[in-house]
Amino acid sequence: MIEKNYQPAEIETRIASAWEDAGAFKAGRPERREAEPFTIVIPPPNVTGSLHMGHALNNTLQDILCRFERMRGRDVLWQPGTDHAGIATQMVVERQLMERQEPGRRDMGRAKFLERVWKWKAESGGVIVNQLKRLGASCDWSRERFTMDEGLSRAVAKVFVELYAQGLIYKDKRLVNWDPKLLTAISDLEVQQIEVKGSLWHLRYPLEGVAYNAEDPSTYIVVATTRPETMLGDTAVAVNPDDDRYRHLVGKRAVLPLVGRLIPIVADEYSDPEKGSGAVKITPAHDFNDFEVGRRHSLRSISVLDQEGRMSLSGNEDYLRDLPEAALIFAEELDGKDRFAARKLIVARLEETGFLDKIEPNTHMVPHGDRSGVVIEPYLTDQWYVDAKTLAAPAIAAVRSGETAFVPKNWEKTYFEWMENIQPWCISRQLWWGHQIPAWYGPDGKVFVAETEDEAVGKALGYYVEKEIITEEQGHDMAVDPAKREGFITRDEDVLDTWFSSALWPFSTLGWPDTDVDVKRYYPTNVLVTGFDIIFFWVARMMMMGKHFMKDVPFPTVYIHALVRDEKGAKMSKSKGNVIDPLHLIDDYGADALRFTLAAMAAQGRDIKLSTQRVEGYRNFATKLWNASRFAEMNGCALAEGFDPSKAKETLNRWIAHETARATREVTDAIQAYRFNDAAGSMYRFVWNIYCDWYLELAKPVLMGADSPAKVETQASIAWARDEILKLLHPFMPFLTEELWAVTAQRNGLLALAEWPLKAPAEPIFEPAIAGDPMAMPVIVVPAPEIEQFSDPAAEAEIGWLIELISAIRSMRAEMNIPPATLFPLVLVGASADIKSRAERWSDVMKRLARLGDISFADRAPDGSVQLLVRGEVAAIPLKGVIDLAAEKVRLDKELAKADADIKRVDAKLGNEKFVANAPEEVIDEQREKRDEAEARKAKILEALERLKDVA
């Protein structure tokens, strides 16, 4: 028996337990071992994370695909897991130690600190997994993986060692994004560009061999910089080769102010004649662009800052080399000062000595660490790198050839732009939590890369014995007695970038390299669902690693979803106070309402403007289906054994079978094409409008009538259509539909494992290209479905006409402001015998639902009638004497004037170039939406006025 009220919280907990107890989501279920596999890997959320709206959207869309394919009979593996999130997790535990006033990481030591992190992970990590379960994610939770599981760690070590052996991993001294607070290199993804109101300092660099005179510009060259504190590390001045102002200076040298070092003036296109003075200082050790200029011109790289962002000058051989004696005193004064304090001191000294030309206000973007919040420093240091350019080539070709396609396709351009300009990938991080780099150093610094320490020791002993640095006897002793090799080799302290292990996720989670059983069955996966922000950092790297180690792409399709914004279109952020917590929405409206909202708004390439009102509206949609199912139950609607809707006698029941088949096709096609909003829209219209508002309403007279074959058939048909709805809606609203299935279907077995209404066609057949034409593309042929879907055009013609006629009358009544209590006649003009018989069969329904007084037939429309054209048939409604036509015209004219004023007001704003240039994107979108609403209102008013003319 269906409860009176729909209570999501009570249902969701119970249904989740039923799924878990039945192992409903396990891949490789006995009955599906021979079925076609369908695999998705979850973008592993950080183990420190909690569910945010991006997660909710991403996992809802994945779950729709997985539940859909599971119901279509596939052996579905939705691979779950979490990422160890190096920096984030280390910060959480370090903050915890500080709050508890316990010894810090360095006081504790590496081993004990890592014990503490693992303990935190066991007790508190992975909260997000339970939150994903609350959302209804149908992952195979028995296969949950963690990027630092033993198996995944072995995969990481194997990949590192193999890439190193192939020359694709190497160590190099390059610039990295350095976080002076966290004391580690970080990835571009962890750098946040923040607009800062700063200054542009114009500095005078004297020319070599010329007496410097501040009043004579020919004695110096002016450079503009936003970072005067790094000038001590300048090794050149660059000018554009096409800049006539400086062409005569190229090849000459300038004197570095305050330091006295001579630095060359070089010609390089990096210098923009339109910016600043047109000449720029080149500091290869402290700027990414300068580093490349330095490489092009073989310049020295002098680092003048330490890891904590302090001036590092005393003992700095690079800095002190060629430094005049007079500069040493100033160097000592600066040494150890924070970079921003040093900036003030250097600017003051430049002004005192006459080398400061001018200062201009300058608003520019400054990189900040997204976790530490401090300004990121380009820092020259030894790090491990991957030759990403070599690995990228096959991954680029895979997308070019169509092996992997992006949906929407425009994201392929983003992928290509980054991949074709890819830089070496810095994979080392100066952290303790993560995959420690499998490299060991001998006493002379020689590096030995191996999967295990024993292997590294073996390599080292072989090397040093061969070089006769140690004797064979010493080597043998150390090989058999670990105590004798202590301190012989030391492991690299750094850990790998989190994205390195994540890049292996599609195959490392399947047991590679220990076993290939699951790899053979579930790799490549079928589709990746992810956000555009990690195309570079995760998608591209999975493509590179998949092609290199599996010799196949990790997924043939990458579906890129958009952002979830607030209801005004603004990006959600804590600072704006507009973050919507999905868990709060689940508490208030249920997981199904949130899921359906996200799916209904997930149009390809369009951001989602989320409001609680939309979620509340779809909770009402769930309630509508609940109440409709309860109505059916109370009226004895149950699916009779062996009921076949195609054998129904009643036109109304054949019509609902026809409409169900159409909805099934629409939903199936839309999900397969990743048009989630279209699939949700089709279900909403079918459930609310077709089934609840029309079918049940039109069936009421039969249900309320005496027992008859028509009543028995209608009861069975209502139950059948309801069950088909539960199947079609299940991927979107799993909790609600599973509950109703259990209560009303009266069958054993879960809806999650029931059969999808439309049987899946066979897999697409790829026919080869036309013989002799090497440029011809293969042809994809999709076989027809196994069964022909039910269709009854005659039933649709009759019931469709009835519904459209009643709807047209209701719409006209609303446009003309006619009260519901006012009955008026309906005249069917020039009706055929078929139309007359329809009208006679449905006259009682038409009178009740359209509020008609009488239905008649005529060859022409009566004078003073509004005429409606419904499927080629004319219906006339005489309105003279029914409403005050003059008063109605006055009312409509006022409404029209108001709509025109609204349109004019919006046009004035959108036509204002200053407004469009300065207003946030969401404000402009809001104005456009207002205009569209006013235009739609105006069209309806004009239609009503046109009808009034006909009546007059």
Key terms for this structure?
single chain; alpha/beta; Rossmann fold; Isoleucyl-tRNA Synthetase, domain 2; Isoleucyl-tRNA Synthetase, Domain 1; four-stranded mixed β-sheet; globular
Structure description:
The protein is built from 32 helices and 31 strands. The protein is an alpha/beta fold and 952 residues long. It has 5 domains: 35-161 and 497-565, HUPs (Rossmann fold); 190-374, Valyl/Leucyl/Isoleucyl-tRNA synthetase, editing domain (Isoleucyl-tRNA Synthetase, domain 2, Alpha-Beta Complex); 591-753, Isoleucyl-tRNA Synthetase, Domain 1, CATH 1.10.730.10; 793-883, hypothetical protein PF0899 fold (2-Layer Sandwich), CATH 3.30.2320; 887-950, Helix Hairpins (Orthogonal Bundle), CATH 1.10.287. A 4-stranded antiparallel beta sheet has the order 6-5-14-16. Strands 10-11-9-12 form a 4-stranded mixed beta sheet, covered by helices on one side. Strands 29-28-31-30 form a 4-stranded mixed beta sheet. Strand 22, helix 19 and strand 23 (557-561) form a beta-alpha-beta unit. Helix 21 (591-600) crosses helix 24, helix 22 (612-634) packs parallel to helix 24 (676-704) and helix 23 crosses helix 27 (793-815). The protein starts with 7 loop residues before the first helix and ends with a helix. Residues 16-611 form the Aminoacyl-tRNA synthetase class Ia domain.
Number of domains: 5
What's the main sheet like? 4 strands, antiparallel
Name of the CATH class of the largest domain = Alpha Beta
The CATH topology of the largest domain is given as Rossmann fold
Main structural class:
alpha/beta
CATH homologous superfamily name of the largest domain?
HUPs
Family: Belongs to the class-I aminoacyl-tRNA synthetase family. ValS type 1 subfamily.
Catalytic activity: tRNA(Val) + L-valine + ATP = L-valyl-tRNA(Val) + AMP + diphosphate
EC number: 6.1.1.9
Protein name: Valine--tRNA ligase
